[in-house]
């Protein structure tokens, strides 16, 4: 082959990897906590190439001491994975954040106690007992509402222990705590702990959605195509995980440092079998406007949402502008 023909042949060869890499748009998302099964759709979209197919190079920022709502509001990340409380607190405080997505279609939280503690049969029995807590105002509003709605006196002692709460409960050092059924609950079962629980929604707490993915209002207004591309690839990642929990667990294990593979697999099963990722009434990631507003009003009415001076904020009457799922439109 002569040199001109050789050059022509080489130029004609496809080079998809290089071309694709050259055109990928960098995007970042900050996590609300250390990597866990709630984040599975992000990992699936990244590691199965869905973000790359959408023309994006996504950096999943590790959890840090600065919460994801603050990182997002400050412009450190393009998107943020936020707890319901984290998002509502930031939005109520005036941060220009918009929720695009809700991962968990039902509240996986529950109040737990030792099954062998025969003095506890209902939330009203918790009055005067000792709670192992995590230091948020939400906990007091939640527990007080559950006890009062069950006819009890909402008075109890609190010791703030963080993740040490579960060992304290297992040893009998405290009477009750809160847990996420799809993680701590699964871990408790693996450890053989005998625990019983009360569902929040059975005692007057709105059945909240959780695990919001949000962005800044400016990003949504100025780069709607980017938001749509990122969210559609994310949706595909979560939908795949909902259909393939075992493979999804293996993918997550490969992406992070998890000492207990059984916990990751058990958590994925609990999330899928419990109907947390996919609800018959909504698509994966769908935000329910009524439940969104219901939880926001509960947080306002309970005095959980405060201004910079510490005063409780007043219910604004409408929070429909706090979320936007226009990216679903074709």
Structural class by secondary-structure content: alpha/beta
Supply the CATH class of the largest domain.
Alpha Beta
What Rg do the Cα atoms give? 23 Å
Number of helices: 14
Residue windows where pLDDT falls under 50 for at least 5 positions: 1-21
Order of helices and strands: HHEHHEHEHEEEHEHEHEEHHHHH
For this entry, what is the oligomeric state of its chains? single chain
Shape: globular
pLDDT averaged residue by residue: 92
**Helix content bin:** 40-55%
Which keywords apply here?
five-stranded mixed sheet; 17% strand; D-Maltodextrin-Binding Protein, domain 2; 330 residues; disordered N terminus; Thiamine pyrimidine synthase; 10 strands; 2 domains; 14 helices; transferase
Structure description:
- With 330 residues, this protein is α/β, with parallel strands linked by helices.
- It folds into two domains: 16-106 and 208-328, 3-Layer(aba) Sandwich (D-Maltodextrin-Binding Protein, domain 2), CATH 3.40.190; 109-203, D-Maltodextrin-Binding Protein, domain 2 (3-Layer(aba) Sandwich).
- The chain is built from 14 helices and ten strands.
- The strands form three sheets. It has a five-stranded mixed beta sheet. The chain has a three-stranded antiparallel beta sheet with strand order 8-5-9.
- The longest helix has 20 residues, at 224-243.
- This is Thiamine pyrimidine synthase.
- GO terms for molecular function: metal ion binding; transferase activity.
- Residues 1-19 form the signal peptide.
